[in-house]
Amino acid sequence: MADITLDHVTKRYPDGYEAVKDMSLTIEDGEFVILVGPSGCGKSTALRMVAGLEDITDGELRIGDEVVNEKAPKDRDIAMVFQNYALYPHMTVRDNMGFALKLRGAPKEEINQKVEEAARILDLTQHLDRKPANLSGGQRQRVAMGRAIVRDPKAFLMDEPLSNLDAKLRVQMRTEVSRIQDRLGTTTIYVTHDQTEAMTLGDRVAVMRAGILQQVGSPMQLYNNPLNLFVAGFIGSPAMNFMPVHVSGDSVKLPFGEVRLPQSLRERLGRQAEGRQLIAGIRPESFEDASLVGDARDRGLTFRARIEVLESMGSELYAHFSVEAEAVESKELQELAEDAGGGEVPSSGEEGRIVARLEPASRVKQGEEAELWVDADRLHLFDPGSGASLTTDGDGDAGERLRRGREQEEAQAESQPESPATEAPS
Amino acid sequence: MANTPRQKLMWSIGILVVVLYALFPVAWIVSLSLKKPDQLGDKKFFSGVSFKNYDQIFKTSDFTHALVNSIGIAAIATFIAIVLAAMAAYALSRLDFAGKALILSGALAVAMFPAISIVGSLFQLWRNIGIYDTWIGLIIPYLTFALPLAIYTLSAFFREIPWELEQAAQVDGATPFQAFQKVIVPLAAPGVFTAAILVFIFAWNDFIFANTLTSSNSARTVPAALAFFTGGSQFQQPVGAVAAAAVVVTIPIIIMVLIFQRRIVAGLTAGAVKG
After folding, report:
1. A 80-109 residues with CB below 8 A of B?
2. How many whole angstroms separate alpha carbon A338 and alpha carbon A38?
3. Ranges of each domain in chain B
4. What's the pLDDT tens digit per position in A181-231?
5. Fold held by B52-272
6. ipTM score for this prediction
7. Interface test with B, best of A81, A85, A92, A99 (most B CBs within 10 A)
8. Which residues have CB under 8 Å from A148's CB, separation 6+?
């Protein structure tokens, strides 16, 4: 077991495309870190560099205290679980799991004992002498896990290990993976494009976009304090609602009304925001049925909207409604929308569609006008140019960040029109 | 297909015609080989069973030598061809290197090349460098013509084996050669078999090279040796002996094809459709 450090690691392909740009990340010993992002963001490439299956163009990769840039995968003592499991079809489950030990020249009894122990943990004992072709998807997945466990390696690397399972099994295996990692306490890097997996599994989550690490933090940190539009839109389901807003004085003009900014937000925002157009992000649960709010009413905004669709989940209600809003242009939102298959995020914002999560006690009805309330305390504001959050506590104050964002943007505009993101292997 | 009794009948007749057409020459040779010398011209398909011809050919050193040569040369050529082709096909299917297209088109060109156009010069060359009428003198041209076939067959198989399997093996601690040997080759075994059988049959059946590049029993293979058969006496036709020898050389091929026919078919169609 060991910690893993990526120190300004870059992956550049011969055609000049940079899949991973200057990535720095330290995974502590025993930590479970999730790399998450849309397909093509470089997360798998990053993982494969740690495994040694891709060369590192620039930077340094350390496992333990050792620089392993030039080491072959076999000398790094890491185990990897592949998306398609990559089980050896001509070997039985037992041989699959024992393969690494056999290569290492371990004595037969030791191999048997370790394989059987892993099989017990994974509930595979009765399948040990079967071939992978005769196993179900979930069983194959567990064999792949078993192959990693048996090795007792310095780290587990998992490349979307659950994405080939059906929805129900995925939830089941998610718990399983979490349980096993907890039990073994092995350093783990887990790559996924599924934000739910990211939120539920990891100690820390690292969000990537276009080869750049966006934000690293605990799931709740990312959820409550996203550093930019991309992280805000990517984390959370249903996704955060975005709309263009104007800040004037103490208040901010939302498409459905004007609301006074709470003191804390105002302070963080400073003067820079005055008179500018920003993007507001509101999580679905920041809305509520106005009749259920009670005392909190005056720290938010009450407005009326026609509920177009009402989805009842039993424990909660999702109310969909539309707002008139000007167009919002943001590269990051566009990317998110594309990743979600289009339409989920109102990137053009001509007629923004909003999702609100309401208490099940709400009497709101589909097709009728309802009085809703939004919590101004939980408003997120973003700079439309750089996408940086202006309301999240991060390094420096928001005004500073806003200015920096604008400079960055200008610098970017000057240096050539951005090359179209080449489709990279995810 | 065959629904009504009438359709079934038509199908049966059709199949029978095709089988007769294909097997009649074989049956005729078998029948000839079982005749006594004086029955050869009797124009009957079946006139008793006599193994005299078989006795005779196995008594002549011409045939037994040729049989040993055939088996030895074909086996060695097959073995070398498969080892070389496996490595070449692996590189072609896995790696990107300069000259890859050249090798592939070169292999194709060799496969297309008419053998007859080079036997003449080979004959001269082999005599000059002293490998005329030797095993190696036949193994080299067999290798040359069998390799493209083997490379194409094998690379079709290797291509179907997912990259990840090898990477998994590498992460599991295997050297690239171990990954090739313990994961890729066992998985490509059907392909290796197919290629081996095809190469063996090619070498076994060859007549042109065997006839041109040999002059004695030291390297002459069966197809060539048949042409040099003589009868028991100067005035006797060697027809019976030739027929018996023809039957004998056919038997190993028939047995091999019967045993491996599924694999051969699977091998020939591999890569055509994603399985």
Report:
1. 80, 82-84, 86-90, 99-100, 103-104
2. 9
3. 52-272
4. 888 899 999 999 888 899 998 899 999 988 999 999 999 999 999 998 889
5. MetI-like fold (1.10.3720)
6. 0.73
7. A99
8. A79, A80, A81, A156
